[in-house]
Design a protein that fits this description.
The chain is an alpha/beta fold. It has helices at residues 17-30, 45-56, 61-85, 96-106, 111-122, 137-144, 158-174, 188-201, and strands at 5-11, 35-39, 89-93, 129-134, 179-183. Bound molecules: thymidine-5'-diphosphate.
Length: 205
């Protein structure tokens, strides 16, 4: 029986998820919950190795999709499912919505194949709640400019991120009960308040 909670943060690169993930992790720990803070691709030694390849090695889009789902499978079986089964609160930086947005929307990879891989890898497991940090790609790009050496995704142009953004919004329209839209180009305190209100409205605190 799953008694844990599974919450994901999504959005294009530069949307500013990390600050809010940090704040939520801190607040939940202070409230006495067992929190498993993790990320995708990644979260296990094997999946972190796959992440390095995924972010930096040239590959075709099927290889990209298979790698990210392989990492996800290891992450789910080794970390996330056991954590949820013992009642922990799992806070994950990206999950399968990112695969639909980046590989499906950004790269134009076949969505039906992604859906098949999704059900093979995770069965019926889905996040309980997903915060979608939405903002114009031009604003996100300005935030990222000069920050560090870009990986294979951060190096994409704005047209790519427009497609990623669109696919995130499509996913939200398909699963309205699970998603909360966050206008991520607002001041940090406003974003934090919106997250707090959404959690309170769902009885998560
Ligand atoms: P990100 O989560 O932004 O981490 P950091 O803040 O350290 O850069 O980086 C992960 C990148 O991987 C991001 O550009 C989105 C991409 N990605 C996919 O393309 N597909 C996926 O399924 C996932 C989980 C991530």
């Amino acid at each position: 029986m799953n008694t844990g909670r599974f919450i994901t943060f999504e959005g294009i690169d530069g949307a500013g998820k990390t600050t809010h993930l940090d704040a939520l992790e801190r607040a939940w720990r202070e409230a006495g919950h067992e929190v498993v803070r993790t990320r995708e691709p990644g979260g296990t030694p094997l999946a972190e190795q796959l992440r390095g390849l995924f972010l930096h090695e040239p590959m075709d889009s099927l290889t990209e999709a298979l790698l990210v789902f392989a990492a996800r499978r290891d992450h789910l079986t080794q970390v996330m499912e056991p954590a949820l089964a013992r009642g922990a609160w799992v806070l994950c930086d990206r999950f399968t919505d990112a695969t639909f947005a980046y590989q499906g929307g950004g790269r134009g990879f076949d969505l039906k194949v992604l859906s098949t891989l999704e059900s093979w890898v995770q069965g019926t497991r889905q996040p309980d709640l997903t915060f979608l940090f939405d903002l114009p790609p031009a604003v996100a790009a300005a935030r990222l400019a000069g920050a560090r050496q870009p990986d294979r995704f951060e190096a994409q142009d704005q047209v790519f991120f427009e497609r990623v953004r669109e696919m995130y919004l499509t996913r939200m329209a398909q699963h309205p009960e699970r998603f909360v839209l966050i206008q991520a180009d607002q001041p940090q305190e406003t974003v934090a308040r919106a997250i707090g209100l959404a959690l309170a409205a769902r009885g998560v605190a």
